[in-house]
Amino acid sequence: MGERDAFLLDRPLKAAVIGVGYLGRFHAQKYAQMDGVELVGVADLVPARARQVGKELGVSVFGDFSELLSLVDLVSVVTPSATHFSVAKACLLAGVHVLVEKPMTILLEEADVLVALAGQQQRILQVGHIKRFHPAVMRLERSGLLDRPRYIESQRWAPFKNRALDVDVVLDLMIHDVDLILHFVGSPVVDVDAMGTKVVTDHIDIASARLRFQNGCIAQVSASRMARESTRRMRIFQPNALIEIDFMQSFLRIVQRGSGEMVLDGIPVPAIEETRLPIERHDALEVEIQAFCQAVRGNTPPVVSGQDGRDALAVVTMIRQGIAAFLEHTV
Ligand code: NAD
Question: Which residues lie below 8 Å from residue 267, measured CB to CB, with a gap of 6+?
Fold first, then answer.
């Protein structure tokens, strides 16, 4: 522990948010409301944006984030994805704990540097894979029902929006499901077959990939930002159950073999038991930020570590390379 850490247990954690656009403003609101945390300030390259959020929450405003690093214990980095590496690196070098939004970086080598730096500096590096904190996902984990998934399919389809158009749909949306699936399967990806195409932007707008894991599990993931309506769903097939997670309706449906038989059209068939687990709704961003603060305070590993973010990025990089090869060979 460094000098700055000696006080962590008996004073509020000092926090700041770097980048207060669409999502960063919500990060700042959560810190401002949280017990045991003092939001010291917000930073944004666009002065009007920083002023607006600073005024809303009654905190100091910075144009250059490097000016606030000596004042805080931790930061959220919520700047555009291409800047995550340089901003998060500067924060870690200054001895500040970092919650960096997803994707943690664009390049795998950059993610490696951040993971190593967090280790050297003994600082928490958490990555904003917020779906780990989705009420249905947390409920599934608590249920203990997840048991050796053999096949997983996920769909994350969104209508077109004027956001995150600086990256492709794989880095922006598919990475959420890749992180979850890696977490659920707990085995490395050994093979990727991917396809995708640009539709309206200069980047891939729809994509589909088949992932094969070392333990034999297969996952089929698809993501689109060209959908008419939002669909965010995952189905997990395992030897004893089918588990369905609907991220939008926030429900968990479990289908399992029941005891005995039931009769369908006059014919006896194995009984099927369908359960909808009750989901207590919560604010996933608030729970994510609370978990980050707990990791900082307790000096414990974060729920979504830098290594987890790096692993998701590695698979996403394979998918993006697969799509590039697919496009090259498609006439
Ligand atoms: P945004 O463009 O609305 O906001 C980014 C802000 O960062 C802007 O205000 C910009 O001026 C500021 N900025 C840029 N460079 C800066 C710098 N060097 N210092 C300070 N401020 C700087 O973007 P957004 O939609 O809020 O997305 C931000 C990040 O959050 C992206 O990486 C995105 O992938 C991620 N995100 C994650 C989720 C999620 O579900 N976890 C959802 C939305 C966005």
Answer: none
